[in-house]
Design a protein that fits this description.
4 strands; 2 helices; four-stranded antiparallel sheet; alpha+beta; 96 residues
Length: 96
Amino acid sequence: MYGAILKGKAETLSVFKRLFDAGAANPAHYFHLRAISLTAEDDRVAVEALGDGRNPMNERRYRNIYFILMRIRDGQVARYKEYQDTLHIYDVWQAE
């Protein structure tokens, strides 16, 4: 369900929808993203965040630290970069 390489916005949104639907069916699987710190300067917003959830396919706990950098233009996000521990993502969502 989550192991394939995603090939675009629609496919990525479909995976997230399944993940959030699993959380709606069982709150133990719901994914939470909590901001730890936020810094804004000029057109940049930097966010440190903690992701927390559980993979509904194998019950592994997902706790990842994120860094998000956004560029804002005309009141909207013009650019978005997100960094996290990709090995942890693999361990929780793909590893056997």
